[in-house]
Design brief:
alpha/beta, Rossmann fold, three-stranded parallel β-sheet, two-stranded parallel ribbon
């Protein structure tokens, strides 16, 4: 599950490269899980940036009725993708919401930590910490 339009400015080149470029055979699909308050706006942002069609599913908190880090929004995405938590890598830019939520349902996580911030006290570290979405290519190929 890659990206979320709410807190992250989409960089279409990186996203397109990840979604369309050569991938590890283990990568089956890419999804968006977003805490947007209004689903049409979230979808419009993805469409405007030219990346909406790159995702197998787009799960928005407005439709689910819960926001990250609640497990239900992560579980909904997993259901739509028909995969188990251990088969997914959740990528997000908020350790307290994205990483913690993914960990709570048993998903591996990659934290986009652009500012090299410290992990919030008492939090389990993510499996990966990256500065830019483009760094995912190396992770996904390994």
């Amino acid at each position: 599950m890659v990206g979320k339009p709410s807190a992250t400015t989409l960089k279409p080149r990186s996203t397109v490269s990840l979604a369309k470029g050569p991938k590890s055979p283990a990568i089956r699909s890419v999804a968006v899980v977003s805490n947007f308050d209004y689903t049409p706006t979230a979808r419009h942002v993805l469409e405007r940036e030219g990346v909406a069609d790159l995702f197998e599913t787009i799960v928005v908190s407005d439709e689910v009725g819960w926001r990250k880090p609640k497990p239900v929004i992560f579980e909904r995405a997993l259901e739509h993708l028909a995969i188990r938590p251990g088969e997914a890598l959740f990528v997000g830019d908020r350790a307290d919401i994205d990483v913690a939520g993914a960990q709570a349902v048993g998903m591996a996580s990659a934290w986009i930590n652009r500012e090299a911030s410290a992990l919030p006290e008492g939090m389990k570290p993510p499996e990966y910490e990256i500065r830019d979405l483009g760094e995912l290519e190396t992770i996904l190929r390994d």
